[in-house]
Specification:
- Helix content is about 40%, strand content about 10%.
- By secondary structure, it is α/β, with parallel strands linked by helices.
- A 5-stranded mixed β-sheet has the order 1-2-3-4-7, covered by helices on one side. It has a two-stranded parallel sheet with strand order 5-6.
- Bound molecules: 2-acetamido-2-deoxy-beta-D-glucopyranose (NAG) (2 copies).
């Protein structure tokens, strides 16, 4: 009985997925004004588009076969083509990808900036065994520099603050605080010092401060990506089922705290924070999209430096549209497309809370303020 239900459920999911996916492709070719004037991206390697290139770190992807399906070749994106931030920008109607902070210049920053940094985390020490990384605290400092430049471009503090309130912000952090910290006792003492529950609490307390700082810097429409089922990435494929289960459980402790945090943040005047449930978004059967390899990376991965990333210069699998993963950590463009589509337009009630990105970016004249329990006049009360 359960399995026939599963089958039906999967079939339904698949149909909706197809619709969202096709709909998304259509939207991409629509030209005109983007749905928000600006889009700022905070996060890790899932969104990094070149910020780590100039850093002294092994956590970079500016060499082949990364970028094999990207028009400019390897750019520092940790995938074969587009990452989720690129695809979200497309869905929002931008005609260019949001530039990396490392090289954004002049008026470009009016459209937003991407601060993402591979191996970075909520905690400043996360990822440091690989070299320099740009932690969320440093990404927020970079954002302050952007705001200063915007103040000159827009001609004033008040105008800039009003502008910043209209932007979309996405934040995806925390996965590396496990992969490149808590799950690496050989480099980091966190798992000796803290139980999984204590570590999750510490992590989300820090995240809460950082997200409040982002709000103070003018952000109102903020989408936070939850942590994923990390036990299922190819990196841990050779672990025994009990270890995989314990990884997933530990990570879920942190993920479970983000939704209540979103509720708390939405008590701030005008705040519209949403939670994107990565586990929910990964549910469903992607085989109708041609995806058939779920647990093996497409490229030949390095076993020495930055183990699990693609080994430089090796020829990857010939058909990148059949694999979920490009290397041992990072999804292929096709998988990123499915993720970004569902974050933009949820099709399971659990994908996004309380609304998805497409609702978040709608004008406040729609019913969105009711969802966040705010009146329209609250929305115009800044706190600057
Ligand atoms: C995320 O989605 C999964 C799968 O539907 C669900 O089990 C979990 O409770 C959700 N998490 C939150 C915090 O809503
Ligand atoms: C790649 O795989 C997809 C899905 O199986 C298939 O539709 C497509 O024709 C393949 N492309 C090439 C170049 O083999």
């Amino acid at each position: 009985m359960a399995s026939s239900f599963d089958k039906k459920w999967n079939k339904m999911l698949t149909m909706i997925l197809m619709l969202v996916f096709l709909n998304m492709r259509q939207q991409v070719v629509v030209h005109g004004e983007p749905q928000v004037p600006c889009y700022f991206i905070f996060g890790d390697s899932l969104v990094d588009n070149g910020n780590n290139n100039p850093l002294l770190t092994a956590a970079k992807a500016n060499y082949p076969p990364y970028g094999i399906d990207f028009p400019d070749g390897p750019t520092g994106r940790f995938t074969n083509g587009l990452n989720t931030a690129d695809i979200t920008a497309e869905l929002l109607g931008f005609d260019k990808y949001i530039p990396p902070f490392a090289s954004a210049k002049g008026k470009e920053i009016l459209n937003g900036v991407n601060y993402g940094s591979g191996a970075a985390g909520i905690l400043i020490e996360t990822g440091k065994h690989l070299g320099d990384v740009i932690s969320l605290d440093r990404q927020l400092m970079h954002h302050q520099r952007t705001i200063l430049s915007l103040t000159f471009l827009l001609g004033g503090v008040k105008k800039t603050h009003e502008y910043l309130q209209k932007c979309l912000y996405t934040v995806g952090m925390g996965n590396n605080d496990y992969i490149n910290n808590y799950l690496m006792p050989e480099y980091y003492p966190s798992s000796l010092l803290f139980s999984p529950d204590q570590f999750a609490t510490l992590l989300i307390q820090q995240y809460s401060l950082q997200l409040k700082a982002l709000y103070t810097l003018g952000a109102r429409k903020v989408a936070i990506s939850g942590l994923g089922k990390l036990g299922s990435i190819p990196m841990y494929a050779n672990k025994d089922p009990a270890t995989i289960e314990s990884i997933n459980k530990a990570v879920q402790l942190a993920d479970d705290k983000i939704k209540p945090l979103v509720d708390e943040l939405n008590n701030l005047p005008g705040a519209q924070f949403i939670y994107l449930n990565s586990t929910s978004i990964s549910l469903g059967d992607p085989t109708p999209f041609g995806i058939s390899v779920f647990d093996a990376p497409c490229c030949k991965v390095s076993t020495t430096i930055a183990a699990g990333q693609c080994a430089p210069g090796e020829v990857p699998c010939s058909n990148r549209t059949v694999n979920v993963f490009f290397d041992n950590f990072h999804p292929t463009e096709i998988a990123n497309r499915l993720t970004a589509a569902r974050a933009y337009q949820a099709f399971l009630p659990t994908d996004a809370y309380p609304v998805d990105i497409s609702n978040l970016v709608q004008d406040s004249t729609n019913n969105i303020q009711q969802v966040f329990g705010k009146t329209k006049s609250d929305l115009s009360v800044g706190s600057f």
